[in-house]
Design goal:
Elements: E1 7-10, H1 13-24, E2 37-40, E3 43-47, H2 48-56, H3 67-88, H4 92-117, H5 132-155, H6 162-171, H7 174-191, H8 193-206, H9 214-234, H10 243-255, H11 262-288, H12 303-329, H13 337-364, H14 391-407, H15 410-424, H16 427-438, H17 440-448, H18 454-464
Antiparallel strand pairs: 1-3, 2-3
Helix pairs in contact: 3-4, 3-7, 4-7, 4-11, 4-12, 5-10, 6-10, 6-11, 7-8, 8-9, 11-12, 12-14, 12-15, 13-14, 14-15, 16-17
């Protein structure tokens, strides 16, 4: 008897020839498959039998645990009690631990471990351009499904507002990143696709125990498996975050009795910004072998310098997050509205000093095409760099000052002073590296422009004109 096969046609042939090589290099292990190919006038034909063989050759289940499997498991075990205490205990210590966990332990540390320690690409933590359009399309469809239900659910809760609640849930990068980009992918690497998906569901259920009713915990576990399958379709975090996760998390938190307001949005907007900047800094520093947490200028450096920078970051980053928490928990503590408004003004000024260097370096720094803005080949002393030498370090100091003014709390003042001094000390090793890179021109630049004092810098600039 003649074997019957089902054919899948891709039109036209030229398109197929572009798609198939990339398809071969993808998630299917087709190197062990002898593909039956037929080029005809109509295009490229792949038989149904071959498609089945590709699917069957996927690493669905395997056993290859490694060190990163253990690291992922440790973060899960740490977060289970942290989530319970953070959502059930009223103590500031528990809440602060929850904020640090969702900021550092679940996002920054996994990103550092993957990008800096294991030297893996961003795609290994779900950050990729591949499958971009399908991922965004699926995510938008998912949130459209949730919006009518969400509006109805919040209507029955007094003083509840859909917009801040939805925005807050969309700002929470930590949950999809932790569950799927970190735990799921690490367990998939160790045990295969199916165990990875189930690990995402089990992880989601475990850390909600005690904070949600048991039936809701089980439902969240099934949601974790569903979103694990969804994430595995593209391995792109954008299929989940921010749109799809905003809707799903908004519904889940309402069922758990949690409603969020604009203060939560402000707090997690800052946290999200810090998380993105950390991941970006890890990626750039490993990609170009540069060590520069603030992103002012990168030059090659040894491991000892990297260690010192990381130690300082471990001091001021938690202190800054503690300030964010105090600003949220004790906003305008002394009732001095003008002081709080001044704090917001300082925070906006810090944003100016933080972002202007990016454009200044790209315009005048001789940055090669398609390279990061920190890869300067010329000394930049114009624009914001004619006022201060290290505007992004200054931005960090101003953020600490703004949090002191916004919260007006003693603990914020103490934490802010320590963080600001530690952050300002970054100027010393940065100047040393820049002298090595640019030589005498930078030495003369140091004598002319202050490091952080923008008041003196503006005065000198106006005087010299």
């Amino acid at each position: 008897m003649k074997q019957r096969t089902t054919a899948v046609y891709i039109q036209p042939c030229s398109v197929a020839q572009k798609i198939i090589p990339r398809y071969k290099r993808g998630m299917f292990h087709v190197s062990r498959i002898k593909m039956k190919e037929e080029i005809t006038g109509d295009g490229f034909r792949v038989t149904g039998t071959d498609l089945y063989r590709r699917l069957s050759d996927q690493p669905w289940i395997r056993s290859n645990p490694s060190r990163d499997t253990g690291v992922a498991l440790l973060t899960v075990l740490y977060f289970i009690p942290s989530y319970y205490l953070g959502t059930n205990s009223g103590s500031w210590l528990a809440v602060m631990n929850f904020i640090l966990a969702t900021t550092i332990v679940l996002v920054v540390i996994p990103a550092y471990y993957m990008l800096k320690v294991l030297k893996e690409p961003l795609s290994e933590i779900g950050i990729t351009k591949k499958q971009l359009i399908p991922s965004l399309g699926i995510s938008l469809l998912m949130i459209l499904r949730y919006l009518p239900i969400l509006r109805t659910s919040l209507a029955s809760i007094p003083d509840a507002n859909v917009l801040p609640h939805l925005l807050y849930c969309g700002l929470c990068l930590w949950e999809p990143f932790f569950v799927h980009c970190w735990v799921q992918l690490r367990f998939e690497k160790a045990f295969g696709i199916i165990p990875g998906v189930f690990a995402a569901g089990i992880c989601t259920a475990l850390y909600h125990i005690g904070s949600f009713p048991i039936d809701m915990v089980l439902r969240l576990g099934f949601y974790g498996i569903f979103y694990g399958v969804l994430f595995r379709l593209t391995r792109n975090i954008l299929v989940l975050w921010p749109f799809s996760w905003a809707g799903a998390s908004a519904m889940g938190t309402i069922m758990g009795g949690f409603v969020f307001n604009w203060m939560h949005v402000k707090l997690y907007s800052v946290i999200l910004l810090v998380q993105i900047l950390c991941i970006w800094a890890f990626y750039l520093s490993e990609r170009r072998n540069v060590i520069n947490i603030s992103g002012d200028v990168g030059v090659k450096s040894g491991k000892s310098m990297e260690y010192q920078d990381w130690v300082r970051a471990c001091v001021y980053v938690p202190l800054m997050f503690y300030q964010f928490y105090l600003s949220w928990r004790f906003y305008n503590n002394l009732g001095l509205s003008w002081v709080a408004n001044l704090g917001w003004l300082v925070l906006m000024v810090s944003g100016v000093f933080g972002w202007l260097p990016i454009f200044e370096f790209k315009r005048h720094g001789g940055v090669p095409e398609d390279q990061s803005y920190i890869m300067t080949t010329r000394l930049v002393d114009s624009g914001v760099y004619s006022v201060v030498r290290h505007p992004q370090f200054l931005a960090g100091v101003l953020i600490c000052l703004s949090m002191m003014l916004i919260s007006q709390h003693l603990y914020s003042v103490v934490a802010g002073l320590i963080a600001a001094i530690t952050y300002a000390y970054e100027v010393v090793p940065a100047d040393r590296r820049l002298v090595e890179k640019f030589g005498d021109p930078y030495q003369r630049y140091k004598e002319r422009v202050p490091a952080l004092n923008f008041v003196v810098g503006l005065f000198r600039l106006l005087r010299d004109r």
